[in-house]
Structures are given as structure tokens and as C-alpha cells.
Amino acid sequence: MTAPDLTSTVAVVGAGTMGQGIAQVALVAGHRVLIHDAVPGRARAAVEAVTARLDRLVEKSRLGTEERASALARLAAAETTADLVPARLVVEAVVEDLAVKQGLFAELERVVADDCLLATNTSSLSVTAVASGLRRPGRLVGLHFFNPAPLLPLVEVVAGAAGDPAAVTAAFDLAAAWGKTPVRCTDTPGFLVNRIARPYYAEALRVYEERAADPATIDALLRESGGFAMGAFELTDLIGQDVNEAVTRSVWEAYGRDPKFGPSLAQRRLVESGRLGRKAGRGWFPYGPGRSAAEVAAATEPHTADAALAPEFVTLRGELGPAAELAALAEEARVEVRREPEAPGTTGAFVLPGGVRLHLADGRLPGEPSVQFDLALDYRAATRVAIAPAAGVHADAVAEATGLFQAMGKEVSVIRDVPGMVVARTVAMLVDFALDAVAREVATAHDVDTAMRLGVNYPLGPLEWGERISLPYVRDLLDGLHAWYPTGRYAPGPELRRRAAAARDVVCS
């Protein structure tokens, strides 16, 4: 099977927002496009909606008037599935219900030619299961677009267990011809993005459930320290709490209730209360008209420490690892850095003038009074850093740590002392999930990083991130978390352990 050329007919079944977006992508690429929906009148309404989309592109000078006219001449509504006979590709974008999808493809198989490529845009169902009742299941592949389909470049090309490699290659090549960035993955729960991204939401919820910080502060740390485009709470409000929780629960169930994928009780309660996010006017944060500025500010303002004096000096013992840049930043802030060697086997740290250690979060709660600080994507560019004083740490030490980071130009959020803090534990889990996906041959390392950068706009692919902060650090942090939470959720996966051991051997040699 070869990829349909750009002059062939593409049919889209399902006239909702996603179906309209996919139709627009195929149309602009040059195809004749047929839109069908089982509900009478919806296909024609979708044609009108796509027409309006093209009109807006013309208004923004992103599409010429002649290109618009040519595209609209190739667009039509199909009243019945029988009208889809000319299609060389049919993309399904109907409700996420396995029986509905299976019935639709069985019907399509009786209508279209044997060389017609069939594709499902499912985001959570098994492609193998969708294809299972077909006479020729090998020609059905997953083509998972991300919303809005015309704007987001990523397409997951999913091969079912019975998938024909030629069909998968044809779908991959066609997505590339449409100007998208396709990645290949096997038919695993959540595919790539929805599988690997679970910790981004889950760890924020865990930190909140432990009352280490409020949602606004956690989100600010993920954005301003972690470099993520949106915080976990505002992102789930945008997605819809019910949608996000359903995907989490679906992946958890598909993996036999593996604790690594466990859902959040706090999010379940939010859904049960009807606080579904932006679409409901309230989720973790308030939205929409009728909300006072004071109400919105109170809900979305992160906790920020008051101004404190910077210490005149700090003592740097050992190496700070992923936080090594902080020594230079301290000196640039006119804080004297006195360097001393650290005893072998101990973690590098600043020692504050009062004698308290200030160290990078490592997944462990120390036996001695100290202050942790969180991981940052780039300490020089970060605008906020979290610190967490251990029990028994005097307020003077907290003020010294706060003043040190403020002198470097950072806002400081003081949170409760929990293992791994916020950014460090989130990134560590993302790295572990990504390595596990590669080890299980769900996708290549390149495709994993590409998917996470383009699909959910992460500042780095998790595998690249792991290499940057060092895999031994990631493993040790998760080992620390696992010691505190021995449920299996944080136990480092075998691939992380193998690679971390290899990396340490290289350093030691």
C-alpha cells in the first residue's frame, strides 16, 4: 500500500471540532475532501465551519483568495457513507466509543476500495481493538492529531498489533506531505504523549494533596523554574478536568492499575463537584464573567517570600551537579563563594553563614536540618525558585536562603519540605516514563522527545532533559522518593537503572 497522492480524495467521518480541523489540513494540502457525519445536517454545518476557517486565514494573509476558492471547490458534504466510495483515505473522528468505531469501520469496509487506507483519530482506545472486526485489519492505522489540528504539528502514527507495515508507512508519509511532524509508535495505552505526560499532572496533584503548596504556586514553579509553557493545574482546567481525569483513569486501568499511573482523589472530587475547568467557569481557578479581579488574583497569585537580605558569603562544599550554575550566579550577585572540598559520597551544597546546608532536592528528607531548593531548567533564565526548610530549621536560615536567591534576581516560594519538591520529581518521573517507552520499543528515542516537545510543548524532550541533569541524579532522586513512598510508584524502571549505572561507570573510569 502506498500513500495517497495529494490529488486523491480524503474522507473525514465525524464533523466535530477535530474532524473539521483534519478536513482543513487535508484540504489545504490539495486533496478533495468529503465530510460525513451520522447526524443529519452536521456535515453541511462542518463545511460551513471550514469555509469560515479559510476566510479567517485569508483575512490574516495566511491564505490567498485563489487558494481559498480552489480549496472550497474541492470540499463537499457526504450525506451517507455510500458517498465515500472515491476515498483513498478515510479518517474517523467520532465519539470515543469502541463499539461505535468498530461498527463504523465495518460499514466503511463494505463501501471503500480494498486499497483505501483507514485511520482512526482515537486518543485513548486501542487501535488493535478498533480494527479487530475488519476483514482486512492491517489497513487500519492510528492517526492521532492534536487539537487544534491545523496548528499543532504533531501526528502520532500508531501501528496496531495486526497493522500492515506498508499501511503505517503510507500514513506516516502522507502526514509528512501535509506538513505535519509524524512520529511512529506501537499500540500501547495512551500511545506516546498521553502515556509519558501522566506524571506532569500527577506529581502536581500529589504535591497539592500533601499540602506542600497551593495550585497557583505549583503552577508558577513549573512555568518559571521548570520552563513549562503552562502549569499543571491551569493546563488541566484548559483540557477539562473530566477529560484529563478520564484519560488518566483509562491509562491506569489499561496498565492493570499500576501505581505509577494512579489517578488523583483530589481531581476526582473536583470532577464530582462539577468544577470542570474553563468550560464550566471554575476548576482549580475561577474563569469567565462575574468574577471579581480580587477573586481571580487571590486564586492565581503564587506565594512569594518577602524581601530578605543576601548573605555576605556562602561556602560551597563539593559539586552542585545540575545546579552548578548557581555558584557563578551567586558571585555575579556579589555574594562571596568560599569553596571547600566535600567528603566523598556526600551531596554538594552551599553552607549558609549560620551553618545550615542549602542543597538541591534529591528525593530524600535529610536527617539534619537543611534547606532544599528545587530543580530548574536553566537557573540563569529561571525567574522563580522554590526552597523548603526541614523541620527544626531556624527562620534566620530560611531568610539567608531566600536572600541568596533574591540577590540572583529570583522570586522565592517557600514550600513545605516534601521529597523531590515540585520540578525535580516531575522531571524525574517524565524521564523514567520516557526511558521505559523506549525500552519497550513503543517508539524511538528521537520520536519520544519530538512527541513531547511538539505534542505538549515541553521545553526539552524528557530523554534530552535526563541526559542534561544526569541519569544517576534522576535514579537517585526516584530511589529517595521510593524509600518514602514504597508503593512502587516511584521505583526507577529497569532502563533508567541500566543507563544510570552505565553513565556512572563512564564517569568513574
Describe it for me?
With about 500 residues, the chain is an alpha/beta fold. It folds into 3 domains: about 180 residues, Rossmann fold; about 110 residues, N-(1-d-carboxylethyl)-l-norvaline Dehydrogenase, domain 2; about 100 residues, no CATH class. The chain is about 45% helix and about 15% strand. The protein has 20 helices and 15 strands. The protein has an 8-stranded mixed beta sheet with strand order 3-2-1-4-5-6-7-8. Strands 10-9-11-12-13-14-15 form a 7-stranded mixed beta sheet, with helices on both faces. Helix 19 crosses helix 20. The longest helix has 18 residues. The model has no long low-confidence stretch (mean pLDDT about 95).
Low-pLDDT sequence parts: none
> Which fold name corresponds to the CATH topology of the largest domain?
Rossmann fold
Gross geometry: elongated
Largest beta-sheet details? 8 strands, mixed
Give the averaged pLDDT, no decimals: 95
Calculate Rg over CA atoms. 26 Å
Strand order of the largest sheet: 3-2-1-4-5-6-7-8
Number of helices: 20
> Could you give me the name of the CATH homologous superfamily of the largest domain?
NAD(P)-binding Rossmann-like Domain
Number of strands: 15
